[in-house]
């Protein structure tokens, strides 16, 4: 969501709610870029509840190249926490950020759209992107949603057309 117009840019997380999925109420912006941390955009992501029921939000942070963070090709995966039980406002943290350096011997471009779920006593995260110009989905695991380990590529395109896979 760009709060300044209908053109791409200055991406935030919009926020709406509904009791029936037909009638929607627009709420204040849930997540906006943190300029002090060099963030330009808050791209898509999702959330997962921990064992205590506390929600943890994950999203793709796109940084300011002038502050030492690359733009689209060097995205990072950040977390955000709700400021209260209403979940109306989120505050981001890069304390447990996933950076492309988590991959042992390759670089992922257009790395984005984290989806996290709890499975058999651990957390799984999938992310979309491209490796060597081939769209792919990558898998990561964590015991606590803070310390992540890269596992492997789950799926990869047959052709190197430079098109990343998104929103796995």
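Sequence proposed for the structure above (168 residues):
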């Amino acid at each position: 969501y760009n709060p300044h117009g209908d053109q791409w840019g200055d991406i935030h997380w919009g926020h709406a709610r509904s009791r029936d999925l037909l009638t929607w109420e627009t709420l204040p912006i849930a997540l906006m870029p943190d300029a002090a941390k060099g963030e330009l955009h808050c791209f898509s992501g999702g959330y997962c509840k921990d064992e205590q029921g506390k929600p943890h939000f994950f999203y793709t942070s796109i940084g300011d190249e002038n502050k030492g963070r690359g733009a689209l090709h060097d995205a990072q995966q950040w977390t955000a926490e709700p400021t209260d039980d209403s979940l109306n406002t989120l505050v981001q943290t890069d304390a447990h950020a996933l950076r492309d350096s988590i991959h042992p011997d390759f670089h992922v471009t257009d790395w984005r759209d984290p989806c996290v779920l709890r499975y058999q006593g651990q957390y799984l995260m999938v992310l979309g992107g491209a490796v060597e110009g081939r769209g792919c989905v990558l898998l990561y695991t964590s015991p606590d949603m803070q310390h992540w380990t890269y596992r492997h590529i789950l799926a990869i395109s047959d052709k190197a057309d430079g098109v990343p896979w998104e929103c796995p």
